Amino acid sequence: MNKTILTFALIIASFLSFAQVPRLAIVSFDVNDATLNKNELIDILRIEMSKHNKYEIIDKYEIREKLEAISVEPMTCLSQGCLLSAAKALNADHVLTGSVNKLGNTLYFNLRITDAKTKIQEETVKEFLFIPKELGTMMGIVVNDMLGTQNDPAVVKSLTDKESFDNSTNNPDASTLDLSGPRMGYTFFTGDGADLLSRSKSTGGYDKTPAFFQMGFQFEKQYLNEGNVQALFEFVPMVTGLDQGLFIPSLTIFNGIRNNKTGLEFGIGPGVNFSKEVRMWQEEGDETWYSEKNGYSNINDRETEWRGDSRGISRLKSYIVIAAGYSFKSGKLNIPVNAYVVPAKDNVRFGISFGFNAKR
Which has the least CB within 10 A, 19, 93, 212, 333? Predict the structure, then answer.
């Protein structure tokens, strides 16, 4: 009976010994820039390590008390000899030290963990953009890397890649960005619109090729948020037809969205331009359009409607534009490329445009 109890007790003791969480002392931290708060960073490191429940984190007050007893200043204990002495005084299985160094517009995080028994050191280094308000997020990423935990790739890209699209993570001080810039491209006409442009001037046409160059300026506001999608508001005045001797002003207002992970964007909104038109009508059973400009008289009092004619008067016309595209990014420069369509019953118009802008 006594032998059974002893065996059972030894099993329990072995299990408890095996299941014991290793003790970790976060001893020192170093920075090279006055804008970086050393004490705040080591507190953040302690919190991030605690989240993983992999180590028993020794209290910072216990660390200070026991190390002062052996005349060791915790924040300057960086050499391996000092760290091993600290581990012995604290009865710690591992000792963790770290540093953050600012070089130009880059932050270099370094974490080094030392095994008190084997004296083996493992080091984790990570490079970030200089975004002081995201130091806590950066520290969490480095700790996850050190402990083998998966990070959110989109967050990592926002904090490490200069080519990443703007969002609330890499622009924490901004809720909106001004991304205005020039735009240019070509628009193509189909159906009745292409026929009108191609016809001779004597029959009310323009004697032009139904494809016009466009140029203008895009006033854009980008609304940042915490996720992958940004809201856009765009105000685009343009001039069309300068390549063929015409001056056709237009204005389009877009509301849209952009995915700041992929750069894909979509927008829709109303547009207006000026078009020369005359009153025309059709006779019963006849698809031909007649007008007084062609020398006809509406003797049967047919219903008339405004239709395009180069001999008419300028009228303001409205329409809807549907656009989709992709924004390329090079440093602070954005290069949006868009395709768009203007739907209509007999006069579908489509085109492509591109431009460039930089965040403000």
Answer: 19
